[in-house]
Batch of 3 targets.
Target 1
Amino acid sequence: MKFAIIAAGQGSRLVAEGVGVSKPLLRIHGEMMIERLFRIFLENDAESISVITNEEMTDVHRFLKQVKLPVPLNVVIKTTPDSLHSFYELSPFLQGGKFCLTTVDTIFTEKEFSSYIRAFKEDNENDALMPVTDYIDDEKPLYVKTDSDLHITGFFDEATPGIRYVSGGIYGLNGQALALFRQAMTEGLSRMRNFQRLMIGSGLRVKAYPFSKIIDVDHESDIRKAEDLLV
């Protein structure tokens, strides 16, 4: 399976709090976040890994230049307006089957991720299998409404009664979902969460996969939370 990482955000809140390296190079238990994802993807049989980073993070460029992986590493250096456009820049490398895309600051346990990837590989019924969590600690979470079988029926900006989960920032998609995405981009789609809504509105089969906890590292205080999760 192909894997991809969006590592294109500025990490402005971390910089404002005095963190001195670009977000992808931030260490959790001594391991850089981007390096950790490379390792976990390879342990889950990645056939290729694609990364996008912005033009300003020269420390990340230097790191990526010296990385040696046993599978193809595709690197895009481009500043984009948002994660949706970053995904679009990566999409040519993700054609031909299922793939998993994640943001660089998404922290999860390796055991849960491996179980998820195994379930995603074996799932022949759905066009997307989306990790969700009932641990809500994000500034602007995307709430995920599901039915009793965990099929996703809607994505919402606000919490409403009966919604248990939020999106985890990990996307498992097949070729049909990718084709819809590329078509929608040509029609002026904006924001990743609007693509998720479009999948539901277009009749794609989208299912939730619960994780116990997923942490986004947006603030310095999140580093400790991430390290506590991975103890």
Target 2
Amino acid sequence: MEKVIYDYEYAFKDNNNKDGAIIYCHGHNSKPEIFEMFQNYWTKTNYYALQFPGNNLVKPVKDHKLSVYQFAQLLINFIVDNGLKNVTLIGHSMGGGTISLAYKLRPDLIGKLIYIAPINKTTSLSKGKYKRNFEPKTLSEYHDFLRPLYYDFDALIANSEFSEEVKKAFDPERFSNPYIKELTMSMDASLYDEIESSLDSITVPTLLILGEKDGVIDSESCLKYFKEYVKNLESVIVPKSSHIIYLENWPVFIDAMDKFLNK
């Protein structure tokens, strides 16, 4: 088993091929395990998924800052420390910001970029249609928090098995602790300016995957925005999906991934 160097938890699948390795970067307050479906599926190159501090109750070490800038640096450090080259980066939601900033730091290390419903300048999470309560204190508020993430949350929550899983997963501390509050506060206008500058610098093949009815990211505006700033862009809007696209329409999602990764 390959030794992996990293300061936090990570997921790793050793496919005995470090050239063209894939690294997944999770979204706001999430964790590497959320993308386990792809980890189990992928067999061609080594697969890694990194936990970033401040998310999912993970305490920072070594004076690491709780910001997307820091996550980008941790990502680059991971690539260098583990001797990876020609890496494909996958970023979901906030992770899209992470891979953008990482690319600008060391474009020479990165071969392809995949964005899944990425945060971007066209969508504000703090006002208007996409305003969300990031600190649900009750199960009902947690349902409201989850609703924009799914294509038809009401149908899902009516299923007793899914409803029980949601109930077990709800932990108010996960949303109200000082770490996640600090991270959320750091995601200001200047961050989106830096992400935009990074997008404008991309020259490697890039895939943008969006949900048909995303309650967090405005898919139509995001697609138009990426076409304006990113060269060499491929894109797909996945039907009957929202923000967590791969959990809602895996066949269409993985078909787009396969076609892009196998080029």
Target 3
Amino acid sequence: MNMNEYPSFKVAAMHVSPAFMDTAKTIEKACSLIREAAENGAALVAFPETFVPAFPLWSALRAPIHNHDWFRRLAAQAIRVPGPEIIQVAAAAKRYGVIVSLGINELSDTSDGCIWNTNLLIGNDGALINHHRKLVPTFWEKLVWANGDGAGLRVNQTALGRIGMLICGENTNPLARFALMAQGEQLHISSFPPVWPAHDPREAGAYDVSDAIRIRVRNHAFEGKLFNVVASAFLDKAMLDGLCEGDAEMRRILSDSPRGISMVVGPTGVPVGEEFQNAEGILYADVDLAATIEPRQLQDVTGYYNRFDVFSFTVNRTANRPAIFVDSNIPPEFNLEQSERSRQSGFADLQSKQGTLNRNEIPST
């Protein structure tokens, strides 16, 4: 797509539950939903935060000393990138011709105890477009996930325009959001969990995730003069039963906590179409990127409506690695380059040479 082309298309926000703590079945469900959305005309499909295989709500509800088994179970179901599960989703994206945003629990390839909250953007040709790890886990999430890095803070040029994405609380971070806006973001993807208990819901003024989502996503759409596709997970009975394991107090807290919402917001900060919250389903909305032009006449914070001679901003997009190895007299940068080529070739083998990129070799805009 040329810079001056403004396509119109349908998006699908997946307000759905995973097959709780079962990666294989969740991947099957994802592929089935991709097919359904494509058959209904969607060109882009967005799944919730860590859809595969679940969002770790147990970390909010039990003491850390009681969660060791849950962590082991999650690590056993977490997936590596590259890996056969992602190849399966990429094949569905290519088969049905849609761009897919997928939230996963990603397992490190250097540690069986390091899990990231990761979002992948897969092109309609089956190639990996972007690989973003949540910069900082929020509150009790720190007991489950490791810090991410800046390697995925990218806006990617696609046939549907310039797409960026952030995970849950990152949509509160003005620097992370500006890093994407500064790359000409036209369509943003925001992923969220089914619920997010920060307080007992009986407390006065308890945190309401639905209100928090509305504030954040409408703000980013308004500030960036862009479309925001918002996908929150749905808490179904199977997930509730699996999490609570007969604990009545835990069930009460989860049942009474406000639910996450899925929606699409336009470039004036106004929602486009309906909002999903209390029932599972696929939310569809029509997007016309031409609608992003006129609002920029009022405030264009990455164009004329700013002072880049006054403000400066630097983003480090280097991927974190545990070590850089220097062999013999070969310079460190050569070893690093060879390492990245090796990872890319492994992904390419799995993709049957579809040209998928490694997360550290994704081109900048």
